[in-house]
Amino acid sequence: MAAAGAFSLREVLDAFRGCVTERREGLLEPCLSGWWGLIRFLQSLGAVFGFISKDAVAKVQIMERHRRGEQGQHYESLQSMVEFELSRGPAELRGRPDSGCRTVLRLHRALLWLQLFLEGLRTGHRDSRTSTICTDSYNASLAKHHPWVVRKAATLAFCALPSRDAFLEVMNVGPPEQAVDMLGEAIPYIQSVYGITQELFAQHSLLDLP
Ligand SMILES: CCCCCCCC/C=C\CCCCCCCC(=O)N[C@@H](COP(=O)(O)O)[C@H](O)/C=C/CCCCCCCCCCCCC
């Protein structure tokens, strides 16, 4: 999947559903595909979100370069990636700004924001403010990893978000009730990807990679 064409929540849902295998392995390809779908949605919201989508694109592209590179076989799953990058030594892992583990960690933290945001949208009232849901989700997740200037720019951008119902309509799923149902279907898959990544990274003390 690439960041072009109309957004489809169904495609994003299918991608995240395909990320976790029966043996609880996290597959990178479907995750990246899910991320491209989300980025496409973000890009459709306008230029005010450009600095956020640019960062997300850069991180997904780093992961694609790993996957398609000479060592690509080690980047099939989160587990094989962690094993491979740890085998090269902690100094190498901590010193590389484009390591797979560091990059996945940034996307993983953003996935917690996404979970909280989608849950807030799903359970919110018709007249809830999307910007408030987004700000609360951000403050409870990603914000603690960002410097003041990024937090300020992000919270300003959130003010440009449309109302909850308009937002649900932009999701192209049909009426708001249908979009809410699909969010209910999507959230457990996103939680599952978040859960296995959190477990794996905690097990190897990788949750604070600089
Ligand atoms: C189902 C459809 C509805 C929801 C659609 C949501 C679409 C969201 C798409 C993408 C989310 C953006 C993910 C951003 C990843 C940020 C990773 C990060 O933390 N990067 C920072 C640290 O990186 P390093 O410097 O250590 O390499 C970097 O400093 C960040 C810069 C940009 C600001 C990031 C703010 C993120 C706010 C959360 C996304 C809000 C999107 C709102 C739209 C609804």
Automatic annotation (TrEMBL):
One of its GO terms (biological process) is negative regulation of interleukin-1 beta production. Its main location: membrane. It is found in: Cell membrane; Cytoplasm, Cytosol; Endosome membrane; Golgi apparatus, trans-Golgi network membrane. One of its GO terms (cellular component) is plasma membrane. Gene3D superfamilies: Glycolipid transfer protein. SUPFAM superfamilies: Glycolipid transfer protein, GLTP (SSF110004). It comes from the Eukaryota. InterPro entries: GLTP_sf, Glycolipid_transfer_prot_dom. This is Ceramide-1-phosphate transfer protein. The gene is CPTP. It is a peripheral membrane protein. One of its GO terms (molecular function) is ceramide 1-phosphate binding. It catalyses: N-(hexadecanoyl)-sphing-4-enine-1-phosphate(in) = N-(hexadecanoyl)-sphing-4-enine-1-phosphate(out); N-(9Z-octadecenoyl)-sphing-4-enine-1-phosphate(in) = N-(9Z-octadecenoyl)-sphing-4-enine-1-phosphate(out). PANTHER family: CERAMIDE-1-PHOSPHATE TRANSFER PROTEIN (PTHR10219:SF20), GLYCOLIPID TRANSFER PROTEIN-RELATED (PTHR10219). Belongs to the GLTP family. Keywords: Cell membrane, Cytoplasm, Endosome, Golgi apparatus, Lipid transport, Lipid-binding, Membrane, Nucleus, Transport. Residues 29-172 form the Glycolipid transfer protein domain.
